[in-house]
Specification:
The protein has no helices and 13 strands. 0% of the residues lie in helices and 50% in strands.
Length: 187
């Protein structure tokens, strides 16, 4: 990383850039506290496979299933996240399902730890969704094309909710991909 300085001549000055994570607790209103940032400390992270855990939640992975345990209410949510796709011959405003179509579920290919330290941990889930490229009348048709979905789940100290970031590589036409978040709540 470089910055330019106007001193003497415009010259590129190499810089070292750090990302600082800090958990702050119990600062009184209108109060303050001081912190000193020093270099040289490395945290090795967790061992034993990908998992996210703090004082409120524990997220585990079993096969292609994402499970969340709510420690406060002592409730287990099993298989609570997946992606599925349906054919759509409608327009940008109206969804029209294809005739005789059934949902195609994305396959979880890999789970990888992005980072893990005492303050925050994150994992990346990579899914593959193989679906027909286009339509044949009002039905799905054409060659099967591979779409990728990357989901980053992160959980930090003191956070009561799981953060979810989704990136989707869409190469197909005329379809509807949805994230299914299974809470176990019936209508």
């Amino acid at each position: 990383f470089c910055a330019f300085t106007p001193l003497n001549l415009p010259v590129a000055v190499p810089l070292v850039r750090y990302m600082v994570q800090l958990y702050i607790d119990n600062i009184p209103p209108c109060g303050y506290t001081n912190y000193t940032v020093i270099t040289g400390y490395e945290y090795a992270g967790e061992t034993g496979g990908p998992a996210l855990e703090n004082e409120y939640l524990k997220v585990t992975f079993a096969g292609d299933k994402v499970n969340i345990f709510d420690k406060v209410n002592e409730v287990e949510y099993e298989d609570c996240l997946w992606f599925e796709d349906l054919g759509d011959w409608g327009n940008s405003y109206v969804f029209q399902p294809c005739e005789g179509d059934s949902p195609i579920k994305a396959k979880l290919d890999s789970i990888e730890t992005v980072y893990a330290n005492k303050l925050k941990s994150a994992v990346c889930l990579e899914y593959t969704l193989n679906i027909p490229f286009e339509l044949d009348g009002q039905k799905r048709g054409g060659d099967i094309i591979e779409n990728k979905i990357w989901v980053t789940l992160s959980l930090g100290k003191g956070e009561k909710a799981l953060s979810v970031d989704v990136k989707y590589q869409n190469k197909a036409k005329y379809h509807l991909t949805k994230a299914v978040i299974n809470t176990g709540i019936d209508n």
